[in-house]
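If you are new to this repository, start here. Below is one unmodified record pulled from the training split, so you can see the exact layout before writing a loader.
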Amino acid sequence: MKTIQAIKHLSIRAYLAEQGLHPTKDNPRYGLYLSPLREEHMPSFKVDYERNLWYDFGLGEGGSIIDLVMRLKRCDFAHAVRLLRNRERVPIAAPRSLSPLSTVPALRILSDTPLRHSALLDYLRRRGIVPEVACTYCREIRYTINGRKYFAIGFPNDAGGWELRSECFKGSASPKQITTIDNCTDTVIAFEGFMDFLSCLSTKHPDQLRIDVIVLNSVVNLPKALPFLARHSTIHAFFDNDNAGRKATAELIRLCPRSEVVDQSCFYSGHKDVNDYLIAHIKDHAKKLAAQKNASKTKTVQSVRNNPQLLKAKTAAVEPQRRKGVKV
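And here is the target side for that same chain:
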C-alpha cells in the first residue's frame, strides 16, 4: 500500500494528461494550463514539474496532487487518498532545483471602483441579474495576470479578497474567505456563490434585504462559516443541486443541531443552482409572452376574415386616399 508521501509523489502532469488536460504553454520546469477548477480563456493554472505542485492563480490556491483531487472530485482527504492509491503511476524524479518558489502573485488587483462598465452590466443582465442589485454589493475590479490588464465584477469577502466574474473569467483574488452580511437577525440565507445570492435578490427586487446572509465562495469554506451560521435559529440553505451541494447541506444539518436548517434546493429542482433556475425562468416567461402575442395576432386575423364589413373598414383605413384626376 502506498504511503501518503508516496502518493504525493505521483505525477500531477501525468494525472492531468489522463483526464485529457494538457498545458497550453510548456517547458521542462513547469506547464501552464487552462484551470480545470473553473472557466477561463487565459491559462493561469501552473504545474511545477520539479516540485510536483500546482497553483491556480485565479483562485489563489494550490498544493499537492491530493489537494488537486480533493478539488476536482469535490471530496475529502481520505477519499482522495483512496482514489490515488488505486492508480498505478511512476513517482516523479527528485527535484533538480531547490530555489524558493516565487511569492509574487500572478493576479494583482489594481483598483476597485463603482460597477459601471457596459460589458459587465450586459453580462449580468444575460445572467438574469438586476444591475441595481449588483451595483449595491459588487465593484468593478481592474487587475493584472502575468502583466496583462483585465477587468471584472468583484464581490468582496470578509478577509479583503475578491471573487471575480466576467464573460471570460471566473476566479478570485486571495485571500480566499467567506462573505457575511450581518443585519443582526436570527435568520440567515446561505449560498455557495455570489451569483446565486444576486439571483435571489433579483427575484425580490426592489424589496430590500432585511435578514443575514452568508456566501461561502466555495463549499470548502463551510467550516469557516460555522461560527456565523450557528448563532442563527433558522438557516435557509440555497446550495447547488449536485453531490457537493447536497453533502454541504447534510453537513450543515449535522454541525448546527441547535438551528433549523431549511433546504431550499427543492424550489429550483431540475436546475443546477439558483442562477440557472432564474435564467430558465426568464427564458420561459419570454416564450410565453411571445406565444400570447402571436395568439392575439392570429385571433385578430381570424375575426377580420370572418367579418367582411370589418375587413372592408380596415382596408379603407390603411389605403391612401385617391387623388382626383385632371383631364387634359
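Two things worth knowing about this chain: The CA atoms of residues 182 and 212 lie 5 Å apart. Residues 89-104 have pLDDT under 50 and may be disordered.
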